[in-house]
């Protein structure tokens, strides 16, 4: 890859991950990095996010001499969206593909929400490729009750998936009315525009969020959840052994197997109401014990 420096308008690059599939990424700052420079910072977004989530932060961090790489998880944004089983381990392998392709020996991981679980999986599976980890509002060990309440809490965010809209403007205006966004700015609008795709429906152009429902449903099932939380009891009845295996796997997170320095950032206020934190104090205490 040729040397380049890009701070404000990085060009997207395609990362091959096998089976003719790709991850879409953007690089901010000097790349490749020099031998004595800090390891690149890889930004890993949340469940229904995309690489634009970290653009404002990337533009600030690059001013400090850091190289920042944002990318769309498989199943999101402009990355490939195969109908397969999604999980944190799959995304950890994809991240290794990204580092291998870009010839990055070790990386710092800056992650939000679901990205925190991916970072923990990567740190556990590929410790020799992990420098430092920063977890933002995620990666906590939660009780079943807390996990269930979190699934209900994110339902408003999931409502946009699978629906068609007559124009980009309609989509944006509906988003502005959502309680998900406590404030509005151009960065949020850029994020939403990036996730829209044109489709032809009933002989007219329509717009739809480009995250397929099957991706999110599979992602949540891998953690013992479901796209619709009320489907969880049915899943357990249909396949109790498999669901027990999933619950058991997600019950204890691999904190003791992470050998890299970890910085944990807890959200400063509740998402909608008291008690809906994705990283509650109880989870922070478990971090400290490990």
From TrEMBL:
PANTHER family hit by this protein: HYDROLASE, PUTATIVE (AFU_ORTHOLOGUE AFUA_2G14860)-RELATED, MONOACYLGLYCEROL LIPASE
Pfam families tied to this protein: Abhydrolase_1
Protein's name in the database: Putative lysophospholipase
Domain AB hydrolase-1, chain residue ranges per copy: 40-254
A cellular component term, taken from the record's GO annotations: membrane
InterPro entries: AB_hydrolase_1, AB_hydrolase_fold, AB_hydrolase_sf
Species of provenance: Leptospira interrogans serovar Pyrogenes str. 200701872
Entries under Gene3D superfamilies matching the protein: alpha/beta hydrolase
Domain of life: Bacteria
SUPFAM superfamilies on file: alpha/beta-Hydrolases
